[in-house]
Design brief:
Blueprint (H helix, E strand, L loop, with lengths): L4 H8 L2 H5 L5 H4 L9 E5 L8 H10 L4 E4 L10 H12 L4 E10 L2 H14 L3 E6 L4 H11 L2 E5 L11 H8 L6 E6 H6 L4 H7 L4 E6 L1 E2 L8 E2 L8 H10 L5 E4 L9 H17 L1
Parallel strand pairs: 1-2, 1-10, 2-3, 3-4, 4-5, 5-6, 6-7, 7-10
Antiparallel strand pairs: 8-9
Helix pairs in contact: 6-7, 10-11
Length: 276
């Protein structure tokens, strides 16, 4: 059975956090909860802010891993700039584990993306390569030993609308090509996020953690715990399949002022982890 937001608030005493961002102590009181799941950030959440703000938010919310979007480290950055930015983040105790979402429409864009990842010391690229490039991508992955997690983007997407569409294209490719499952877009497809995680666990490299208000294509992002996704079911399944990657919050609502909603989403998730 799912845990409702109101029940979560009652059980954890986080009424203040539900109302506003102010009591960050409510989140901090949950330190260590969910240690078996690594909670992190997809920096697209903070797309309208600079790298220093990304670092400050990760530290405030105690998110120890981040995947960088090009807003925070442009894809055409030189190796010195990539090293400077990634070292700055890592020196603040935050693992820069990946980058993306990166779109790849030519072989040169594939090479550029993997060079960018190599210079940044990223374990993976969260990417969307054109179908015709997949054989080339397969060779590049083998050569560079950097994982590619292909991201599903929902019913309006022509390339990878769902995780099943990703699977059909990569099932015969190198095992280092897998999935970044965006549970919001899975839900907008009318599918069950936990079921997709269980089905595709063997090559599940990344999770985009979020919530949406409807199980239809017009569903929009909301704070985690406010929407229709069975968040406890997702978290239980991740634990059950022994997921070792990052649960990366991609909070897309309130782009100009995302901190309160992101903080509530992180707090809700930690509260659910405490109860399960």
């Amino acid at each position: 059975m799912g845990v409702s937001r109101n029940e979560f608030i009652r059980l954890t005493g986080m009424t203040g956090l539900a109302a506003s961002m102010a009591p960050l102590e409510a989140i901090h009181s949950l330190d260590g909860i969910g240690a078996k799941l690594n909670l992190g950030l997809a920096s697209y959440t903070l797309r309208n802010f600079n790298v220093d703000y990304v670092i400050s938010v990760c530290k405030k919310l105690e998110l120890k891993s981040v995947s960088l979007k090009s807003f925070h480290l442009p894809l055409d950055s030189n190796p010195e700039k990539i090293k400077e930015v990634t070292e700055k983040i890592r020196n603040n105790g935050i693992d820069v584990y990946g980058a993306g979402v990166i779109y790849m429409k030519t072989e040169q864009e594939v090479l550029n993306a993997f060079a960018y990842a190599k210079h940044g010391g990223f374990k993976m690229i969260i990417g969307v390569p054109d179908h015709s490039l997949l054989p080339f991508v397969n060779d590049v992955v083998k050569e560079g030993d950097i994982k590619l997690a292909i991201h599903n983007h929902g019913p309006e997407d022509k390339l990878y609308p769902g995780v099943g569409a990703v699977h059909e294209k990569i099932k015969d490719l190198d095992s280092r090509i897998g999935y970044c499952i965006d549970i919001g877009h899975v839900t907008r497809n009318g599918q069950d996020a936990a079921a997709m995680i269980k089905k595709y666990k063997d090559r599940l490299f990344d999770i985009h953690m979020k919530d949406v208000d409807a199980k239809t294509g017009d569903g929009v992002p909301v704070e985690v715990g406010h929407g229709v996704i069975n968040i406890p079911g997702v978290l239980k399944t991740l634990k059950k399949v022994a997921y070792t990657g990052t649960v990366a919050f991609e909070y897309e609502k309130d782009g100009e002022d995302p901190l309160a909603g992101l903080a509530e989403s992180v707090g809700y998730t930690r509260g659910v982890l405490k109860m399960i």
